[in-house]
Design goal:
One of its GO terms (molecular function) is ATP hydrolysis activity. Keywords: ATP-binding, Cell membrane, Membrane, Nucleotide-binding, Transport. Pfam families: ABC_tran. The protein is of the alpha/beta class. It has a single domain, classed as 3-Layer(aba) Sandwich (Rossmann fold), CATH 3.40.50. It has 8 helices and 10 strands. Strands 6-7-8-3-9-10 form a 6-stranded mixed β-sheet, sandwiched between helices. Strands 2-1-4-5 form a 4-stranded antiparallel β-sheet, covered by helices on one side. Strand 9 and strand 10 form a beta hairpin. The protein is globular. The protein binds adenosine-5'-triphosphate (ATP).
């Protein structure tokens, strides 16, 4: 699905959050949105999802104006939104049952998707009985089961520790390769953006405008991101973080773990 942001403006009670944002996101492309907290990244995702209406400009999905939410454009949040009173299988299956699919068939398909995200054997567990990483795996299965044409991911792994985040990034990349949706990814983790994205948009503080765009398409990537060191430094610099500060932040993170 091609997503087109055309001269998007957004204000909330006089607060200008998005200022004339225009970009085309190609079918099957993964674009990461990186920027300071509160600059308006989630607002852009909500506009693409049809949850918020722009104050100006137009949002198009495959050339048609976005009028509201649609299962073709699936949003996934950081805090997994699994229902605590349903098992993992029921949670994943629900995405299909909502679309009036046959219940037994939906359950069978949910089991297949849970297997794809390495959760075979945990179908009848409740969310509180599994780890945060496992809950996000289930949330990924639920996001992919209805074969969305666009996936809108808002800090999907932000609440996880660094190691779990990496294994989830691998799982996400594998699912994307198989299913080929267009993906918009909001992340605070520059390494996550470098690892997953074909393109990175770095935003200014509010109102969000694009400071710089980085293309990473056609790179065969691993978690060893040393070939992107210069780009990483530049992105962090645009965000006002200098390498030494970043190292200190990492050190603090390690000490806290
Ligand atoms: N529904 C809303 N009503 C009023 N103000 C809103 C609404 N949604 C967002 N805002 C405001 O718009 C600004 C941008 O919020 P948004 O969540 O898009 O930022 P963000 O870049 O995703 O931030 P973060 O990285 O911290 O999640 C904030 O000042 C926020 O308070």
């Amino acid at each position: 699905m091609k997503l087109s942001f055309k001269n998007i403006e957004k204000q909330f009670s006089g607060l200008q959050v998005i200022d004339n944002f225009s970009r085309e996101i190609d079918d099957g492309e993964l674009v990461a949105l990186v920027g300071p907290s509160g600059c308006g990244k989630s607002t852009l995702l909500h506009i693409a999802a049809g949850l918020e209406k722009p104050s100006g400009g137009v949002m198009l999905a495959d050339g048609a104006p976005v009028q509201g939410p649609h299962p073709e454009r699936t949003l996934m949040f950081q805090e997994n939104a699994l229902y605590p009173w349903l098992t993992l299988e029921q949670n994943v299956s629900l995405a299909l049952e909502f679309q009036k699919n046959d219940k037994q068939q939906s359950r069978a398909e949910a089991r297949l998707w849970l297997e794809k995200v390495n959760l075979a054997g945990f179908e009848s567990y409740y969310p509180h009985q599994v780890s945060g990483g496992m809950r996000q795996r289930a949330a990924l299965a639920r996001a992919f089961i209805s074969h969305p044409k666009a996936l809108l991911l808002d800090e999907p792994f932000g609440a996880l520790d660094a190691l779990t985040r990496m294994t989830l990034q691998d799982a996400l990349r594998q699912l994307i390769r198989e299913a080929g949706p267009t993906v918009l990814l909001v992340t605070h983790d520059v390494d996550e953006a470098l690892f997953l994205a074909d393109r990175i948009l770095v935003f200014s503080p509010r109102p969000a405008t694009v400071l710089k765009e980085f293309s990473l398409a056609r790179h065969e990537k691993t978690h060893d991101l040393s070939e992107f060191a210069a780009m990483r430094r530049e992105i962090l610099g645009l965000l006002g973080i200098h390498a030494e500060q970043d190292d200190v932040a990492k050190l603090i993170e390690e000490v806290e773990v």
